[in-house]
Design brief:
single chain, 266 residues, alpha/beta, two-stranded antiparallel ribbon, 14 strands, 26% strand
């Protein structure tokens, strides 16, 4: 239950702007990015919504139903690069930088040897590769979890984890946080291997209140960095307004010929 002060029927908290206003062009307006993170933190104290005009521009392109596969892949890869850099920056440590003219405060990037990026196959691999591009010496891991289309419940199939993963900082990669079932199953898999929640940073493109609440309840130590907080899940457990099926749109496996997205079957 959302409690007496909340009304999630329309995806908003009474007296505050609807969540959808934080995921459209409003991100360009001063203060709304911080407001989106405040909304997210009411659902999950460890959640942060990344905001900038560049994020809004790229999100708008991959959300648009008319976007072709070529333009979708281009925009998605650019957005993944921003998420990867921002994720790594949140694992950085303070340092003093010696410049040619003096000193200043800065951040030191984490060592690749201290990190392991984990993707939830298949769309998570898109984000994982963006992380590997900027930190090529980190370890990687794969977890295969698929949603049962009839029950909408996650099913675990496969894992491949590197030795010593319990001593690494984990970057968990999956573009969509819907009900949270797949993410929680992946987190449980990592915890069984000795990883502690406080060492996990979950990167995703679009989240929703249901998923943030689920992680707050069952994996409260996990940090979340997302590019958007959407309104809700619909009756089929899809994020609204969302962007459709991230993997199908990126890989072109379905939807274009059927007219679900893209234009002229492209």
């Amino acid at each position: 239950s959302a409690g007496a002060n909340c009304s999630w029927r329309h995806g908003c908290v009474e007296g505050e702007p609807p969540l959808s206003s934080f995921t459209a062009a409003g991100f360009n307006r001063p203060g709304l990015g911080a407001m989106a993170s405040e909304q997210a933190q009411k659902l999950n104290r460890n959640a942060e919504v990344l905001s900038s005009p560049a994020v809004t521009m790229l999100l708008s392109q991959i959300r648009a139903k008319s976007t072709t596969q070529k333009d979708y892949v281009n925009a998605a890869d650019r957005l993944m690069g921003i998420l990867a850099e921002e994720g790594l920056a949140r694992l950085a440590t303070p340092m003093t930088v010696v410049t040619p003219c003096g000193t200043c405060s800065g951040l030191e990037a984490p060592l690749g040897s201290s990190l392991c990026a984990v993707d939830i196959i298949r769309s998570g691999g898109i984000l994982l590769e963006a992380v590997r591009k900027v930190c090529p010496d980190l370890k990687t891991a794969k977890v295969l979890i698929q949603r049962d289309e009839k029950t909408a419940l996650p099913q675990f199939f496969y894992k491949k984890l590197p030795n010593g993963i319990d001593k690494k900082k984990i970057i968990l990669c999956d573009p969509m946080l819907a009900s949270g079932g797949s993410a929680l199953m992946a987190i449980d898999c990592l915890k069984e291997a000795g990883v502690v929640e406080d060492n996990i940073l979950f990167l995703n493109v679009v989240s929703c209140p249901e998923g943030l609440r689920a992680l707050a309840e069952k994996a409260p130590g996990v940090r979340i960095l997302t590019a958007a907080l959407d309104e809700k899940l619909d009756e089929h457990k899809f994020i609204v307004p969302g962007l459709g099926d991230f993997g199908d749109r990126y890989y072109g496996t379905a939807g274009y010929d059927e007219g679900l997205w893209g234009s002229d079957g492209k």
